[in-house]
């Protein structure tokens, strides 16, 4: 009996040692060397093709030349994510990195009827330049690492994923009669008050013109210290499940040492149908 038991133990030891010799240890990589104060980052290691579940960047024609190196501007990258029938809009932004060597990610859910920001998520980390380019953090990798978390939030608010939004141009024609067109109204510092050595914006307002007969303010913002040097309306996105639209507002800030200048994108929502009367 003792001999049998010893023989079994000997055979098990031999099998275990063979597995250790021939088997490969699982390779794990820390893709995102970062500090994250919101949730633990769950990095996906599988290589499945899930590109259809990843939001697509909205290509803005004006920004195409700015993608080149040594451009005078650093653009934001904008990703429509989804809409609800009630007028909620979910979108992600990769803000410009001026000189940090960092990756920035922001996710917002906004009520386009009331301008209320219902939820926001922000993440930033420094790039790990010891990693090869194909392993550096980017939008696809980060979205996949948080996809379940983001989907849970979208589902809880009844937001339907839709990555096919296209930028449309103003004016908007309603019922073949009324025409809606947003107009920017700005105020700048005077030369003697420009403490930074250049003029910048102190007040920004969007007035909605209805068939050129009346104007209604739909957005106001005051900058106490360092405001943008210029602003423009890029166009709008239409809610495919409702009447609301998302106006794309661009603001350009002066770079800390001059060019390149970072460009930010903000969403201003309205329901055009509410301006029919």
Tell me the strand order in the biggest sheet: 5-4-3-2-6
| Arithmetic mean pLDDT | 80
Biggest sheet architecture: 5 strands, antiparallel
Distance between the termini: 97 Å
Number of helices: 2
Q: State the share of residues found in helices, binned by percent.
A: 10-25%
Extract low-pLDDT stretches. 1-48
Shape: globular
Secondary-structure element order, N to C:
HEEEEEHEEEEEEEE
Radius of gyration: 26 Å
- Would you tell me the structural class of the helices and strands? mainly beta
- Report the strand count: 13
What share of the residues does DSSP label as strand, in percent? 35-45%
The gist of it:
This protein has helices spanning 2-22, 139-156, and strands spanning 73-74, 77-83, 88-94, 102-111, 117-126, 160-161, 172-174, 178-188, 201-210, 214-222, 230-238, 245-252, 261-270. The chain has 277 residues and is mainly beta.
Account of the 3D structure:
The protein is mainly beta and 277 residues long. The chain has two helices and 13 strands, in the order H-E-E-E-E-E-H-E-E-E-E-E-E-E-E. The protein has helices at residues 2-22, 139-156, and strands spanning 73-74, 77-83, 88-94, 102-111, 117-126, 160-161, 172-174, 178-188, 201-210, 214-222, 230-238, 245-252, 261-270. The strands form three sheets. A five-stranded antiparallel β-sheet has the order 5-4-3-2-6, covered by helices on one side. A hairpin with a 4-residue loop joins strand 2 (77-83) and strand 3. It is globular.
């Amino acid at each position: 009996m003792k001999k049998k038991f010893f023989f079994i133990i000997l055979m098990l030891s031999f099998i275990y040692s063979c597995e250790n010799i021939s088997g490969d240890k699982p390779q794990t990589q820390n893709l995102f060397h970062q500090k994250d104060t919101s949730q633990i980052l769950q990095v996906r290691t599988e290589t499945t093709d899930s590109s259809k579940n990843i939001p697509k960047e909205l290509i803005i024609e004006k920004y195409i030349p700015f993608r080149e190196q040594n451009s005078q501007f650093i653009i934001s990258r904008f990703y429509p994510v989804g809409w609800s029938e009630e007028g909620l809009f979910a979108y992600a932004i990769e803000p410009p990195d001026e000189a940090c060597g960092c990756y920035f990610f922001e996710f917002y859910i906004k009520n386009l009827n009331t301008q209320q920001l219902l939820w926001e998520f922000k993440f930033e980390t420094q790039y790990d330049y010891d990693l090869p380019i194909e392993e550096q953090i980017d939008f696809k990798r980060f979205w996949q690492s948080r996809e379940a978390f983001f989907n849970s939030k979208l589902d809880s608010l009844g937001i339907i994923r839709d990555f096919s939004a296209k930028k449309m141009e103003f004016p908007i024609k309603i019922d073949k009669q009324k025409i809606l067109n947003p107009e920017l109204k700005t105020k700048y510092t005077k030369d003697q008050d420009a403490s930074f050595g250049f003029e910048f914006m102190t007040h920004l307002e969007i007035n909605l013109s209805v068939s050129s007969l009346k104007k209604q303010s739909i957005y106001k913002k005051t900058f106490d210290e360092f405001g943008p040097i210029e602003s423009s309306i890029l166009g709008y996105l239409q809610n495919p499940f409702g009447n609301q639209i998302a106006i794309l507002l661009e603001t350009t800030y002066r770079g800390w040492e001059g060019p390149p200048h970072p460009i930010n994108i903000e969403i201003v929502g309205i329901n055009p149908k509410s301006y029919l009367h």
